[in-house]
Amino acid sequence: LTVLNAGRRYLKAEELSGKVFVTSGLGGMSGAQAKAAVIAGCVGIIAEVDEAALLKRHKQGWLMEISNNLDHCIARLREARKNKIALSLGYHGNVVDLWERLVHELDTTGELLVDLGSDQTSCHNPFNGGYYPVQLGFEEGKQLLSSNPGKFRALVQESLKRHVAAINKLADKGMFFWDYGNAFLLEAQRAGADVAKKGANKTEFRYPSYVQHIMG
Fold first, then answer.
1. N or C: which end of the chain has fewer CB within 10 A?
2. What is the pLDDT of residues 60-119, one digit of tens each?
């Protein structure tokens, strides 16, 4: 319902075939995102750093395909988008790399390859394993979290700034991003990322919350 209503509200579309939804997280509640994309008829690319979570969703049948190769992901995205095929593709990697690759595609080809975007990393708990920084692999991140939590925290905040910078570039060209109630925008703001709503008070963000804007 969230994905369908985001399409209705932001894309003025009653059906989402040929549209692309990019997000992250295939763990607990976030695992439903892959299934939602296919039910809605769109192309869903979902990033997940934890291979165990990725394989679990694939085994369940909630995730149609998995890949750790961004070139392959972009090729599959283009193919499914062109042919209006419903697809859920799990990218085994950091979502920041995925967002930055989509910016690269926009910069080099002029193509905006994503229509809808969100995030379901566990940003209510960003410094204790809920969000892994793009600068490190998953296992490296776990080791640093254990050995030097202060350094881990600093890398998470740097990563959040990169995360938002990529989203902002795509949103400026017409991609619609929303907050999934996971404290992503709040933690990004605390990290110094550009998420403030222009001309509004400091408690308002440039991207809407799914609670009020989509489900409400």
1. C
2. 999 999 999 999 999 999 999 999 999 999 999 999 999 999 999 999 999 999 999 999
Class of the CATH domain delimited by 1-215: alpha beta
Q: Where are the domains of the chain?
A: 1-215
Whose tokens are 């404290």? That residue is 183
pTM: 0.95
Instruction: Encode pLDDT of 146-176 as tens digits.
Output: 999 999 999 999 999 999 999 999 999 999 9
Q: Where are the alpha helices (DSSP H) in the chain?
A: 2-10, 32-40, 51-60, 70-83, 95-109, 138-147, 149-172, 184-191, 210
DSSP secondary structure of 91-130: EES-HHHHHHHHHHHHHHH-----SEE---S-TTSIIIII
Supply the angle between the helices 2-10 and 32-40 in degrees, to the nearest 10: 50
Which amino acid is it at 15?
Answer: E
3-class SS of residue 166 = helix
Separation CA 114–CA 27 (nearest Å): 22
What pairs with residue 13 in β-bridges?
none
